[in-house]
């Protein structure tokens, strides 16, 4: 249904064109557009592009920046500079256009011209932080996980200074990923009254529940869907699954997704061999979304382990909501958002970040299919009521409309 007032805004985002993350593609590209709001986008091309160009996506104009996806350090730097050059369009567009506000998402250096343009024209400036990028850079350096430590250290310090000393204090409103991130941001002196958590959701809940597991003739599948990056510490899941196999040797672990770097997955494969469970672990890699859903449908239990660090504690796990939307029982550890969701929904078991506790919870659901099915039904109902993007868009739209009155 179209909103009482139509908003016209410019969206400058870290997301590449065309956007694929649901918190952009669905929340804005579908739900906000369906309400009659007009969005213009500044994005960098997600594939190699020699020149910048203008196009239309979801009935909205998009200024797409050139991009170089070479692997060398020089070509990576070139891609960054091309992105900044495209983001500078905001200065001209705001001067020409009549926007109710500028929405910047996960940009740091490139957010500066947007802020300058907003101040010069009296346009509202909103900021959207989906992940603690500065803190991740600094943590990677401290833990020795950074490939280029000096670069990551400098980038982290610059991002942190820009974010907490300039961008967020200047923003009319700040959107974050979770209640925990709201607390983290407020601890830097940003008023909590102008911070709104927008957790991850799903487009819609499937109309019918999928079948659980492979059936009487197939092995019970424990499934993980998501990133295999080293920062996720998924060797924890492998060790927990080894304990599962000790009591349920027919079980299989499917890992659907990949790492940002080739060595991320290689590390997990080597760990599975070291633990002597490689034959029971199946690495599916990056797959199209529909294929990923087919893997979820065949799972008996879905898992969402999150290593307890300040970085990951502030996130809003998408995978758990997707599992629940498909009626799957979830085993997760006591990450703040996961604890909140499972406590309110009854959609699974939330345990301490402990390998044996995690294994025991998986086995509990594998051995009690009736309990698992009931948790799947409860989780699905909760997601339908609170975490579809139609519901989330209502909340975001209300913030925008109130701020623009």
Structural class of the helix and strand makeup? alpha/beta
Q: Which band does the percent of strand residues land in?
A: 15-25%
Shape assignment: globular
**Main beta sheet:** 8 strands, mixed
Strand order of the largest sheet: 3-4-2-1-5-6-7-8
- The total of helices stands at 17
Low-confidence runs:
none
The radius of gyration is 22 Å
Number of strands: 14
Give the distance, in angstroms, between the N- and C-terminal Cα atoms. Answer: 20 Å
Q: What is the averaged pLDDT score?
A: 93
Helix content: 40-55%
SSE diagram, text form:
Elements: E1 8-17, H1 22-25, H2 27-34, E2 38-45, E3 53-57, E4 60-65, H3 73-87, H4 89-96, E5 101-105, H5 111-121, E6 124-128, H6 133-142, H7 149-170, E7 173-176, H8 179-186, E8 195-197, E9 221-225, H9 235-247, E10 252-256, H10 262-274, E11 281-285, H11 289-298, E12 301-304, H12 310-313, H13 318-325, E13 330-333, H14 336-345, E14 348-351, H15 355-367, H16 369-386, H17 389-403
Parallel strand pairs: 1-2, 1-5, 2-4, 5-6, 6-7, 7-8, 9-10, 9-12, 10-11, 12-13, 13-14
Antiparallel strand pairs: 3-4
């Amino acid at each position: 249904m179209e909103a009482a007032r139509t908003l016209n805004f410019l969206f400058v985002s870290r997301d590449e064109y065309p956007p694929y993350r649901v918190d952009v593609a669905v929340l804005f590209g579908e739900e906000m557009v369906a309400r009659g709001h007009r969005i213009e986008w500044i994005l960098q091309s997600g594939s190699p592009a020699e020149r910048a160009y203008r196009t239309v996506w979801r009935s909205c104009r998009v200024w797409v920046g050139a991009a170089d996806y070479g692997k060398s350090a020089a070509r990576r730097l070139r891609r960054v500079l091309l992105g900044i050059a495209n983001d500078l369009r905001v200065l001209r567009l705001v001067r020409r256009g009549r926007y109710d506000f500028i929405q910047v998402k996960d940009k740091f250096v490139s957010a500066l011209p947007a802020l300058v343009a907003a101040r010069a024209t009296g346009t509202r400036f909103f900021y959207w932080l989906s992940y603690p990028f500065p803190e991740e850079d600094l943590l990677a350096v401290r833990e020795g996980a950074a490939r280029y430590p000096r670069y990551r250290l400098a980038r982290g310090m610059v991002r942190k200074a820009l974010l907490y000393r300039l961008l967020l204090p200047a923003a009319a409103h700040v959107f974050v990923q979770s209640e925990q991130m709201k607390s983290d941001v407020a601890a830097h002196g940003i008023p909590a009254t102008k911070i709104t958590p927008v957790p991850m959701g799903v487009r819609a809940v499937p109309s019918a529940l999928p079948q659980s597991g492979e059936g009487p003739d197939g092995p019970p599948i424990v499934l993980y869907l998501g990133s295999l990056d080293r920062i996720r510490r998924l060797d924890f899941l492998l060790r927990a699954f080894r304990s599962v196999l000790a009591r349920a040797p027919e079980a299989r672990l499917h890992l659907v997704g990949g790492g940002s770097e080739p060595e991320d997955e290689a590390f997990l494969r080597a760990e599975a061999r070291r633990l002597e469970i490689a034959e029971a672990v199946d690495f599916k890699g990056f797959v199209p979304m529909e294929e990923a859903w087919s893997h979820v449908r065949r799972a008996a239990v879905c898992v969402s382990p999150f290593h307890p660090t300040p970085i990951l504690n502030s996130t809003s796990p998408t995978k758990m909501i997707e599992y629940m939307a498909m009626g799957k029982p979830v085993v997760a550890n006591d990450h703040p958002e996961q604890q909140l969701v499972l406590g309110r929904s009854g959609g699974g078991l939330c345990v301490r970040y402990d390998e044996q506790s995690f294994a025991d919870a998986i086995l509990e659901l594998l051995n009690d299919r009736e309990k698992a099915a009931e948790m799947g039904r409860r989780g699905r109902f909760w997601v339908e009521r609170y975490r579809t993007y139609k519901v989330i868009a209502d909340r975001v739209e209300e913030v925008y409309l109130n701020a623009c009155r």
